[in-house]
Every structure is written in C-alpha cells, then in structure tokens.
Write a structure and sequence with these properties.
The protein has about 290 residues and is of the alpha/beta class. It has a single domain, classed as Phosphatidylinositol (PI) phosphodiesterase (TIM Barrel, Alpha-Beta Barrel). Strands 1, 2, 3, 4, 5, 6, 7, 8, 9 and 10 form a ten-stranded mixed sheet that branches.
Amino acid sequence: MKMEVTGKMFCVLMLLLHKSVQQQAFNNNATLNLPTNYTVGWMRTLDDEKLISEVNIPGTHDTMALLQVPGSQCQSWPLENQLKAGIRYLDLRVYGRFVIIMHGVIPQFTTFAEVFNTTKNFLSQYKTETVLMRVKEEFGGNITEKAIIQVKNDPGCWISNKIPRIGDVRGKIVFVQKNSFKLGIPLLETDQKSDYKVKNISEKEVKITEHLKQALGALKTDRAVLSYSSGTGLPLWRIWNTPNHVAKKINPWLYGYLRGISKQNPKGCFGIIAMDFPGFDLIQQIIGFNN
C-alpha cells in the first residue's frame, strides 16, 4: 500500500512539474507578472565592447500580431510588456502609406510610428538597453519615405550596416536589414523559406535543433544571426496547428533543450531567437547564456 501511494504521489508531482514548465515557457495571457527581485534592464551587465551580434537576444516573431483571430495571433503581451519581460528583438510586418502593422492580410490596428514611439519611450526609461528592430513589407510593398526619414533623422537609431558594440547603442534602436528596407545591420536567417509550416511537432523540433546548431557555429562579427521557433500549420491543418497550438508544444521543449545545452556550453551564442507566445522563464533562459 505504501508503495502504491508513493507511486501515485510521484505521478501527481510529475504532472505538476510538466504543467509548471509549460507555464514558464508558454504565455497566452496579456498580463505580465514580474518577480519582485527582477531587473528589467538585463543588458546593464553586458560588456560595452561586446558586439551586439554576439549577444543571445530573445525576440518575438510577428511582434504585434496581438489581434485574437484564430490562426493569426502570435503574441499575447502588448509591446511594453514584451520589452519589460526581456524581449530585445522586434519583428514588424507593415503595409501601405501609413505603414500599418499587419499579419498577412489582417491589420493589427497600430502603426510603425506607434511601435517606434513605444520602443523609444521604453529606451528612455531603461538607458542600458538596446532593441533590435526588423521591418518587413507585406505584399512586396515599399516602406514609405515618411517612415524612412523618421528613422534616418533620429539620433536614437542605429542605421549603419556596421555591427555596433553594446556601448555604442545603449538607449538606441538597432535596425536590421530586410528586403527593400536596407537600413541597419545585415542578417543571416537559419530558417529556410517554408520552415514555418508545421505539419508535425516532432519534425519542427528537429528543424529548430538544426537551426540552433547552425547559429552556434555561425560567424557573427559582420552580421546578426536569427533563428525562429515559431510556426503554424499548412492551410489544411491550420485549424489545429495555429501559432498558439504550436508554441504551446514547442516552447516547453525549447526551454528544456536550451537548459540542457546551458549545462554543456553555458557561454554559447545563438544570436537572436524569435518566438511565439514566449513565457518569462523561456526568455530568461536565453538571456542566461550571456552571464
């Protein structure tokens, strides 16, 4: 009888542990609850001479895809909460003369200017930090001259293609080149064109593993390196494999994978890891490689 009770208790503990890890790694709540001893400005401890490309940076894929439309939503935290939780790479998809933030064909009811100003306000409060920002034109459009002028004329923006050192960009936005948006630092993406399509979770785990291994070995002195853990189902499977569903499975796995690597290679550098619905502890796991 004693062994049976112990066995049941063990099973309960394992279920609670699994649930705890999932909560740590995956977040679909707009509210941000930070630990009482947490310091928002985690980049304060980084060496000023270190290249920004040699820092492990947690990021979000489709940062502003907040609209609760099934199959479209990629994040739950609004931008300010993402930044406070430790996110330092933003992925923006824009369209039109007013540079509206989009996710595919779905407008997100905000603009590049609003995101830009929110980020600037955050950096004015946390001057030790820097935020990388990539701007991609949806539907093959071009960024309006108005937006480009705003960026070019702002001294709080790094638009050079030279990789900056941390000390050069504290309190600044570092732009990352993409397609016709040629301002900022060059980027190596480990993902291939269709790797975001998820038909099978275990296959996605294999792809992420390959990408992160490539990122670890990539030269980072003249470019930033970006890997995605995000994904969604092909149209036929999308009703099940939404970004939320994929992240709920992938994020706990990624948390465990990175935790395992940290024991073997605690100083390893992946560069940027962009995620859907990341939980606080998953973000901190990536930041921890910098310590």
